[in-house]
Design brief:
Structural class: mainly alpha
Radius of gyration: 22 Å
Number of domains: 2
Shape: flat
Helix content: over 70%
Number of strands: 0
Number of helices: 11
Largest sheet: none
């Protein structure tokens, strides 16, 4: 509430047309650059290329920017994808630092500046986690790395929302206090992120894990999917019923519901390409003779798309929760 009060006071002193557009521009660039990085990071895991380059922060002793181009492009695929991941991450660092500086210089709202500083800290933590995952070769660090990435992407999305002209123009709008809808929106975003954490347990399950441990991780992930789907569809329905006049909320709710539906389909596809048709279900004719091929293109693309879509759901759910708090 203090942040909202501070923002209303700040907006009255600094009208939208007198505030710098650069924070929003850089925040949007950060979002657009981070999403491909999530895809490439997913490919690194899917291709098991995390240890293709055994040193950090160098690449086989080279400064990453000075690594020979012909060696990179003409070398093994796992080295290519891991080095690309590092280069993209370096670009994200530059954008995040630039955004932090611009917010410090041009953003009058203290809470937005702090959000930007948190993003800078988050990207640095993610860098260290990724590097230590290579240096120490620890699966736990890989899991943490997989969880921090979507959190940073979500934070970048919130910065893009908070620095937008539409957000500032909504400061003076009268609104009620629909605490139930606010709570539902926030809980949906938190559950979506928890599902990312549960998914990382399945994706990074140790090779020596017992069957019961894997079944437990998968069961929690499936239960999480049901919770996220139920909350997302329920939130969408409630917004349509109670706030159909708020086009921004309706569009956000539609995006969230659509992405969750897509994610459920991707989840089924990921199961099929990784584990085959479930033995406890009648096998359709189309599934007869299907063979799971480890590392196949279909397996890699489906699994990586499932990971990337999960991160997008968290970001959209968080942005929708922010707009719900802003408008209702």
């Amino acid at each position: 509430m203090r942040a909202l009060h501070e923002e209303r006071m700040t907006t009255s002193r600094f009208p939208p047309n007198h505030m710098s557009a650069w924070p929003h521009r850089l925040a949007v660039v950060l979002v657009c650059a981070t999403f491909p990085l999530l895809w490439v990071g997913g490919l690194v895991t899917s291709y098991r290329a995390g240890m293709a380059v055994p040193d950090w922060p160098t690449t086989y002793g080279y400064n990453p920017l000075a690594y020979p181009l012909d060696t990179w492009l003409g070398g093994p695929w796992d080295i290519f994808i891991e080095h690309a991941h590092r280069l993209l991450a370096g670009g994200i660092n530059v954008i995040a630092l630039a955004l932090g500086v611009v917010l410090w210089r041009a953003e009058p709202r203290r809470w937005v500046r702090r959000l930007g500083y948190l993003a800078v800290a988050g990207v640095l933590v993610q860098d260290v986690l990724g590097g230590m995952r290579v240096v120490l070769d620890r699966r736990l660090l890989a899991q943490l790395h997989a969880c921090v990435g979507p959190a940073f992407f979500t934070l970048a999305g919130l910065l893009a929302v908070a620095t937008s002209t539409a957000w500032r123009e909504a400061a003076g709008r009268p609104h009620g206090r629909c605490t139930k809808l606010r709570g539902l929106a926030l809980l949906t975003a938190l559950l979506a992120y928890l599902q990312i954490v549960l998914g990382s347990q399945v994706r990074h399950v140790p090779v020596d894990a017992s069957p019961s441990a894997f079944r437990g991780a998968m069961l929690f992930h499936l239960l999480g999917a049901g919770l996220v789907a139920g909350h997302s569809f329920g939130l969408c329905l409630r917004i349509h019923r109670q706030h159909a006049q708020e086009g921004r909320l309706v569009r956000g709710a539609n995006w969230l519901a659509g992405l969750v539906g897509l994610q459920l389909c991707l989840g089924v596809g990921t199961w099929l390409v990784n584990y085959g048709w479930p033995s406890f279900l009648p096998q359709p004719v189309a599934a007869e003779g299907f063979t799971v091929v480890r590392g196949s293109t279909g397996q890699v693309v489906m699994s990586t798309a499932h990971v990337a879509c999960g991160a997008l759901i968290v970001a959209v759910a968080a942005a929708l929760a922010a707009w719900v708090h802003r408008l209702v």
